[in-house]
Amino acid sequence: MDTPLAMESGHPDPPPGQCWCCGSIDDPDRMIHLGNHPEVAMCRPCARWAAKEAWEIEDRDRTGVLVSLRDRFRRLRRGVIDRNWHRHPVFGRPLRWLGNRLP
Ligand SMILES: [Zn+2]
Q1: Structural domain contains residue 90
Q2: Distance 63 CA to ligand 1 centre (A)
Q3: Domain match, 2 and 37 both
Q4: Residue 19 CA, ligand 1 centroid: distance in Å
Q5: How many domains does the chain have?
Q6: Would you place residue 8 in the very low, low, confident or very high pLDDT band (cuts 50, 70, 90)?
Q7: Which residues form the domain of 25?
Q8: Residue 76 Cα, ligand 1 centroid: separation in angstroms?
Q9: pLDDT for residue 98 is more than 80
């Protein structure tokens, strides 16, 4: 018998529609569900973050101009986030838009 992930870790499952990553609430039909554990849902921003993380992990074993360029974008993004510029009232929105489209 399958045991839900949350039961194995001793934590109760979050309610349906709650992101297991950040805790935000959304329509479950507009969330990403894991294949073997459909009870595990992620909001779209967290799913984009996870995809970027996976890409970064894959890039660790690669070399080349494009890998170097993606690393620069990642460092630039971290610099923006460290300075909280992504929440700036004027520049925040275009920076977040750009950040969603870059590696
Ligand atoms: Zn989330």
Answers
A1: yes
A2: 31
A3: yes
A4: 5
A5: 2
A6: low
A7: 1-44
A8: 22
A9: yes
Backbone angles phi, psi at 69, to 5 degrees: -65, -45
Tell me: pLDDT of 11 over 90: no
d(CA 56, CA 101): 15
pLDDT tens digits, 57-94: 999 999 999 999 999 999 999 999 999 999 999 999 99
Distance of CA 10 from the midpoint of ligand 1 (Å): 21
Specify if 49 maps to a domain: no
Packing angle between helix 92-101 and helix 65-82, nearest 10 degrees? 150
Domain annotation covers residue 52: no
Residue-level length of the chain: 103
Distance 50 CA to ligand 1 centre (A): 10
In a domain, 50, yes or no: no
What is the three-state SS of 32-86?
EECCCCCCCEECHHHHHHHHHHHHHHHHCCCCCHHHHHHHHHHHHHHHHHHCCHH
Q: How far is the CA of 62 from the centre of ligand 1 (A)?
A: 29
